Amino acid sequence: MAYEQIKHRIMPTPESHTAFRNMIAGSLAGCTSVFFSYPLDLLRVRLAFEVRSTDAVRLADVARIIYNEPTPFLSKRITENTLLKPLAGLSNFYRGFMPTLYGIIPYAGVSFLVYERLKTLARTSLPRTLTYDTPDGAPKLTWWAYLTCGALSGVIAQTTAYPFEVIRRNMQVAGTRDVSHPQYQTPDKPRRNTRDTARHIWVRKGWRGFFVGLSIGYMKVMPMSAVSFFVYEWTKNRLGID
Predict the structure, then answer these.
(1) Each residue's pLDDT tens digit, 25-54
(2) Which of 10, 13, 28, 111 has a 20 to 30 A CA-CA distance from 214?
(3) pTM of the entire structure?
(4) How many whole angstroms separate alpha carbon 51 and alpha carbon 54?
(5) Dihedrals φ, ψ of 51, to 5°?
(6) 95 with 72: CB under 8 angstroms?
(7) What is the DSSP string of 30-77?
(8) Mean of per-residue pLDDT scores for the chain
(9) Residue whose C-alpha is closest to residue 144's, from 128, 158, 125, 133
(10) Quick one: which of 170, 171, 192 has its CA closest to 75?
(11) Cβ 48 vs Cβ 25: under 8 Å
């Protein structure tokens, strides 16, 4: 419910509601969420990518591998320091975090902005999306209207932020690759940060490389976003949040 808390802080009255503030509230809520959940997302990606062994790979094994990998964020002097070594290991769980943050700002912001606008459009211009079967008789969007608004907002947001998603995935699995290999290098140096990874993708595949797999992404994000926003509205209703 980070979105609701932030929204009520920056838009305390109905008169203060604007599209820009809606987008800011969504972006900040997305940043809050991704900061706490990112290490789990990295573990999920690496579990799917770890196919070098014929044995079953356990979650603890993958976490240990990530922790002990050379970190691209800190200097060798810091990583060799006994007191600071745990910091280097923990920083590996945020490999690819910055492009995720770059992506979640437009994704969450656009997602909530489009969702709120679609709900307003449905209430004011599409009477078939309304139901009056409520305790107080007030018009309310039908369940399928909520699902449709959620799915469309997810598609638009996914398109906006997808290049950052591609960069993030490349950085997340970079620890499993030999970065000294020419295939994983840009012309001047190995990939280590967001800019180097983006350059690597551009050199190999051009602008289309930033949208590889987008159609599959739509198949994932449409039901996910539709259900997420529907549960969000159901929870708000149960908790009495307007």
Answers:
(1) 889 998 998 899 999 988 888 887 765 555
(2) 28
(3) 0.71
(4) 7
(5) -120, 15
(6) yes
(7) HHHHHHHHHHHHHHHHHHHH--S-SSPPPHHHHHHHHHHSPPSSS-HH
(8) 82
(9) 128
(10) 192
(11) no
CA distance linking residue 198 with residue 11, whole number of Å: 36
Single-letter code of the amino acid located at 137: G
Interatomic CA distance for residues 242 and 147, integer angstroms: 19
Dist CA 153 CA 113 (whole Å): 8
* Token representation of residue 147: 């699902």
Amino acid at 226: A
209 neighbors 226 (Cβ within 8 angstroms): no
Q: Answer whether 82's CB lies under 8 Å from 209's CB.
A: no
Backbone angles phi and psi of 185, in degrees to 5: -120, 150
Rg, Å, the chain Cα set: 21
Three-state SS at 15: helix
Whole-angstrom distance, CA of residue 79 vs CA of residue 83: 9
Q: List for the chain the helix, strand, coil content (%; round to 5).
A: 75, 0, 25
Residue position matching structure tokens 């809520």: 29
The pLDDT of residue 196 is above 90: no
Query: What sign has the CA pseudo-torsion 166, 169, 171, 175?
Result: negative
- Closest by CA to 185, choosing from 193, 194, 196, 176, is 196
Q: Which of 126, 133, 180 is nearest to 152 (CA)?
A: 126
